[in-house]
Amino acid sequence: MRMYDLIVKKRNGGILTREEIAFMVRGYTDGEIPDYQMSAMMMAVYFQGMDEEETLSLTMSMRDSGEVLDLSAIAGIKVDKHSTGGVGDKTSLALAPMVAACGIPVAKMSGRGLGHTGGTIDKLESFTGFSTSIPSERFVENVNRIGISIMGQTANLAPADKKLYALRDVTATVDNMSLIASSIMSKKLAAGADAIVLDVKTGSGAFMKAEADSFALAREMVKIGNGAGKKCVAVVSDMDQPLGFAVGNALEVEEAIATLKGRGPADFVELCLTLGAQMLLLGKKAETEQEAREKLLAVIKDGSALQKLAEFVEAQGGDAAAVYDTARLPKASLTKEVKADKDGFVGHINCEEVGVCSLILGGGRETKESCIDLSVGIVLQKKTGDNVLSGDTLAVLYANERDKMEEAERRLKLAYRITNEMPQKRSLIKGVIS
Question: How much is the pTM?
Fold first, then answer.
């Protein structure tokens, strides 16, 4: 088998076999197939596409290129959740304790953020002493003992995807549905869960801006999950404005805690209930979506979800007292209110630009080596559809450097569009694909 022949075959619109794809992925991961040949293959795939069988074969080959976690020592049905990312997306911080409190083991592998805000691990490190660098034995033990644990992604998780994504990023071949879906799902399948719930974002703050593209990606990933023998459900949700009000690591942790205390923003609570209901259904802890939602609301009301978060933080070395006293979380030294300069309605918020403002303040990473300031960020006071008078506070900036705060203020003002008429309301949940 020669890589040259496979490039010609795909360039001419041929269908690659499972064995050919496995040869290609293994050879590239091991360094036997050079970048220039894989670049040619990625461009051929970009133009010719891949069918369902090819996409599944590519995903499984990338999954099998490294470590595949064995979670069989954890009792019960393990249900994982993945988000395609967005601004203010602190969902795992509240959702994982809610689901664990309902009796579903949460054994999650998470990463750090690269972009406008930190990832789940960065946010959790707002609890002093918290660590996801734990041995796999302790990871399994924590899940069996308290129902929840999160560890950092291992270096050997789907190494083929790391190499392929870096190559696609510099050869203009990122934007292909099969390649995007296989990249995401190879890591999810390697993480070892029995079932997966996917939160696929759409809108100005999402990777997929167009709703049709988000649905196409959701369908592709569900097909891959099912083809790999996993139960898989995708929820397409709105990311045309930040989720909740808080954007920034410690600020998002504080909002997640407020949610577990029954004081969460309506949109954030609804997303947690929608995703959580699907997780309970897949984990066989509820027969209907309504029953699942009632169980999730019950663990908020009786305080068991909040207690589960505290147990989880303590089990991984963090300051659990901060769950009950958020004044112990990192705090910025400067605040600045961003004011409206005319009357009207918030017609639209450029969600991605809000994320950029958080990055400017220091809340995200421009490179993998960047150091995140966990205390900074933005708390919105007005969201799309809200009535605004001149002088009203649109948002509050939290910063530690005055020049960064001033730049963020200027850009955040431009991110808000004030209109004379109330905009049409966008639905949060666009659809569920199973």
Answer: 0.93
